[in-house]
């Protein structure tokens, strides 16, 4: 059973930052996911994903936002979210929250087992600890 937490105003602001970065930088076939991470210091870093012709080398928005944060010296993550921008052929008017892929779940947990992730669950936006999304995490026994 997923232990969920309700969102607060800071969480909705984080979602808005992810939406703003992808709305500003959306490019069909290149960038359709925006992500934002809030650090324990309260700073927010937002970035878009990098699509690639060879799917395995695409870089997810969560990884880009975390990398941006770390590059600025902000290493402790509190909450992260990703949103998808609709494509022109879709009959959808606004961005929506998407769950992190398996690789992002691993990456987020590698850099912060206490990080919360905002997801859509049973039709509502909630947050939960990343480790709840990654049972039996791969890793060293020394961690």
Please give a structural write-up.
Helix content is 27%, strand content 24%. The model has no long low-confidence stretch (mean pLDDT 93). It is globular. Strands 1, 2, 3, 4, 5 and 6 form a 6-stranded mixed β-sheet that branches. It has a single domain, classed as Cytidine Deaminase, domain 2. It starts with 8 loop residues before the first helix and ends in a 14-residue tail after the last strand. The protein contains 3 helices and 6 strands; from the N terminus they run αββαββαββ. The longest helix has 17 residues. It has 143 residues and is of the alpha+beta class.
**End-to-end C-alpha gap:** 25 Å
The average pLDDT value, as a whole number, equals: 93
Specify the helix fraction band: 25-40%
Could you name the CATH homologous superfamily?
Cytidine Deaminase, domain 2
| Count of beta strands | 6
Strand content: 15-25%
Instruction: Sketch the topology as an H/E string, one letter per element.
Output: HEEHEEHEE
- State the name of the first-level CATH class: Alpha Beta
How are the SSEs ordered, and which strands pair?
Layout: H1 9-25, E1 33-39, E2 44-48, H2 61-71, E3 77-84, E4 96-98, H3 102-111, E5 116-121, E6 124-129
Parallel strand pairs: 3-5
Antiparallel strand pairs: 1-2, 1-3, 3-4, 5-6
